[in-house]
Structure formats: structure tokens, C-alpha cells
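Hello again,

I reread your note about wanting to compare the complex against the isolated chains. To keep things tidy I'm splitting this into two emails, and this first one only covers the full assembly. Below are the input lines as submitted, including protein chains and any nucleic acid or small-molecule components. They are followed by the predicted structure of everything together. The single-chain runs will come separately.
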Amino acid sequence: MSDPIIRIEKMNKWYGNFHVLRDIDLQVAGGEQIVICGPSGSGKSTLIRCINRLEEHQEGLIEVNGMVLDAGLKNIDAIRSEVGMVFQQFNLFPHMTVLQNCALAPIWVRGMTQKDAEDIARKYLERVRIPDQADKYPGQLSGGQQQRVAIARALCMTPKIMLFDEPTSALDPEMIKEVLDVMVELAEDGMTMLCVTHEMGFARQVADRVIFMDGGEIVEQNAPQAFFSNPQNDRTKLFLSQVLQH
Amino acid sequence: MRAWTPSPARPAPVNTIGAWGWVRRNLMATPRDMVMTLLAAAFLFWLLDVVIGWAFLNASFTGVDRSACLKQVQGACWPFIEAKFGQFIYGRYPEAERWRVNLVFAAGIIGLLPMLIPAAPYKRVNAVFLLGFFPVFAFALLTGGMFGLTEVSTSDWGGLLVTLVVAITGIVASLPLGIALALGRRAQLPVLRALCIGFIEIFRGVPLITVLFMASVMLPLFLPDGVNFDKLMRCLIGVALFSSAYMAEVVRGGLQAIPKGQVEAAAALGMSYWKTTRLIVLPQALKMVVPGIVNTFIGLFKDTTLVLIVGLFDLLGIVQLHFTDASWATPETHITGYVFAGFVFWAFCFAMSRYSIFMEKRLSTDAD
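Full-complex prediction:
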């Protein structure tokens, strides 16, 4: 892979004495979409949280966008403004309107004027198809709308990489589709994406690679066709048989 | 297939709606409720009778000395309040200079009112005036000794003037200090955290009287000879430090209630610690603990009466002082004085309480 945008080599992480990520080797090229799946507790969320340093790793190398993440890192905020993240619980700021939520970071991190930031915010709210909710408060929106606002908020910083941590797991089934549609469009536009998700349909449709994790290790990774129809590892087979049941 | 016609709506039974419906539901629902209602009504009537009798019907309203308040059935002695009113408000501030105090009061109200009304514009200018210009202006005007104003020593200040100076200084100082302490207590740096915890636990652990005493008696011992801190200033510092320790814990409660996801989301957007704290965490935390904050303010307002211990006369202190005036010695003088002082304190505290509720409603962004 020529110049991967994310490079992880022999990364290990402990929570106290608990070895949560073991010898992770991963390279992601620009424009690639990766889906990470696995049972709960397998370390999938921890892995992507290490990429924008919401969690710190103790051993190994993580390089994002050409910058190495380590303890002496001075401008972690500079790295984070290039990596957008969407959370399972949305984490919108409830005391601000939808528009202010989206315009906040461009104003305070990129130093834009309020007018420019709001223009950008409206553009991305349009993109996630809720331009008319701009002046509402997050508490007044449905779960699916809130998550789409969260995606727009992350996109307003024009990141190079988007991380999704189980974005649809807290949504009613009817609302999952509207969020997945937005993510599919994002993928088709060529955004580098790492998604932790249980939505296998999404993985089949969009992913360049599916990664299966268990017990803190990457067990198997493959293109979705091969991954779903011909899993190599027994553990993967077991997981898929349980997940693809319904 | 029958066409569906909804059945017509009927009005509710007369006995269940309107004022009579409320009375029936809340005061007369069961026989026991009826008895309680009657007892409560009887008590209220008795209370009203006593209060109105004392404060109005049997009270004296005019007079120049104790003879005005020596009727057979005597209620309140309002002439006492009227005669001493100047002292109650200004203390021993020279009568000729009281216009300065009035000017300061007026400037304070003019600055404060627009600040409290959310719809009023120019909040930033207002805040700069209120927090920057006004304290300097008030200090200069009240103490004097400059710009051709005669100096009025702080030991001559008294009454409501002292109460308001101590309370307002304490309130204005304790909020930012309290926020700083609360943030410091949750900081990662162990030394900073230890210092903040130490400060909070020490000042919360001792009575305010002790703090005032320490500030008044011990502070001069630590200062070099000749340097003498003004007594009122020592009180202000003591009250501010004491109150900020309480405020710190109130704010910390709010900070703890902010979900970690908020900070993570802000961090993921590239916001620094200070930006996150200022724009995301503090607005939500403070909004959440408005009841606690105003509660602390109200408590502080009333705690100012303790400055009597160090020889300053606030409103209550000066009322008590004038009880010793022989020309006004009657059985009702004390009660009248206390009722007056109590009412003034209550009025200020109630105003703060109502404003707090107004602000809570205003800041609420819930869907309902």
C-alpha cells in the first residue's frame, strides 16, 4: 500500500493490567472504507478510539495522516481536527441549536467567521438531508435526525478520515436506514471511513474490507464478498453464523 | 360497511371543572380532607388576625419618641423605624455625604437591571460596566478622599449599605473563584488538585465567624508594622474566600453530571481543554446547578450579619444597636425592629429566588 493514511504496527494497549488490544497491525489507504465487526468486548471501539487518541496506547506505532501518535504529542488537537468521529450516543451539545453544534468547531478550531461557519454548517446539514432542522435543539429531534446532525457536525471540519463507533446501535430500526443512507453516500464520495458496526448489509454494500476482531486481536480481514461467503477462521465462522441468522 | 361518525363531545360535569372543581378535588375529596381544610382555614384566619392586628390595626404610625408606642393594646412601633431609617440604611455615614451612597445605589441598579433582563442588548458593554467600572466607581465614591470628596472611613459605614457591600462583593467574587476551584479540584495535576481540595475543605470546615475573626485579628499579625488592612476589606476577603469554597462544591456537582461523551465529542472535533470547558462543559454544568448557586447566594446574603463579630454594623447589627436608645424603649421596639430587618432580608432573598426560577425556565432547552 503506497503511503497509507493510517498505519498501525504492533500496537498494544492495556487498561491497567487488562490486555485489551494485542499486536494490532493495520493499514488503511486513503479513500478506503473499512468495517470492523466482532463480539462485544473484542476491542473494536477501543481500536478506533486509539486512532484519534481518545484512548492512549502503551506499545507500538500509530501514524495518522503522516503524524505519529505518542505521549509527547504537542498538537493532538491538530490531528483530531482531521479525524471526524461519530458516536453511538450521538453526543450532540444539548444547549446549542443544530446549526450552532455544526458551526462550533469551524469557528473555534479553524478560526472561521460565524457567517462562513454557518454557511458550511448549512451545506452539510443539506447533505445529510435535514436543512430545515437548523434552528432546533437536539432534544427536539428524533434519534435518526440527531445522528445525522452528528455526522454533519463531524463533516463540517472537512476531515480526511471519519470514524464511526456503532452509529446505529442506539437507534430504532426505522431510523437505521436514514443514517446508513447518509453513510453510504459518504462512502461513494470517497471518504476514508472506519466503521464499527453490526450492520452487515452496510458492510456488504460499501466496505472495501471487513475486519473481524475478537479478544483484542484482528482475527481475519478480507473483502466483503470473500469474508461473508468464505470465512477462513473458525471463530469468524461462528460469529457470522450467529450474526447473519436474522 | 357503515360510515364512521364520531360521537359528539360532551362538556365535563359542572362539579369537576373550574375553581369549584379544584376546591372539591383538593380540599374536600374525603371527610378527613374536609376536617383538615377547616382546621387550616381556622389557623390561617387566626394568623391573619394576629398579623394584621399587630402590623396595622394596633400599630402606631406617627410619633417622635417612645410615648407614641405605649398604648394599652400596642402593635408595631413604626415611628421607631421611621426615625432611625437613615441610620438603618446608611449607618453613621455623614448626612451631608449620603447623596454619594444614593448615587452608587442608583448606578448599581442601572447597571444591574439590563443585565438581568435577557432581552436587553449590549450585554458585553453592560458586563464591563458592572464588573469593571462600577466597583472602582463605587469604591471611589463611597470612601472618598479623592476628587474633592471628603473621606468617609469604613467604620462609619453601616446598615443596609454594609450588608449590600459585603453580600454583593461576596456573591460576585465567589462565583468565578468557585468555578476555578471546582475545575482545579478535577484537574490532572496532583499539586493543583491537592491545593484546591485543601482550600475547599479548610474553608468549609470552619464557621464563617472563625474566618472573619481570623481575617480580622490574625491577618494584621502577619503583615509588617504600619501596614493596616481596612477592617471592611478584611471582612470582604474572608467572606469571598469562605463563599467560594461552598460555590466550588456546588459547581463540582454540576461538572460531575456532564456525561463524558460531551467532552469526548468536543475533543474529537479538535477543541482544546479550555475551549471545551468554556463552551461545552461550564454552560451546561452551571445551568444545571442554578438552584444550588442561588441557594448559596441567598445563604451568603444572610451570613453577612456575622460581620457584627468584628465590629462592623450591618443592617441587623445597627437595628440591634438602636434598641439601646432610651428615648425609644418600649415593649414593642425590639419586635418591630426585628420584623423590619427580617422583612428587608426576606425581600432581597425572595427576589433572588424568583429570579432564579425565571432564569431556570429561560435556560431550559427541553422539548417540553
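For quick reference: The CA atoms of residues 88 and 167 of chain A lie 5 Å apart.

B.
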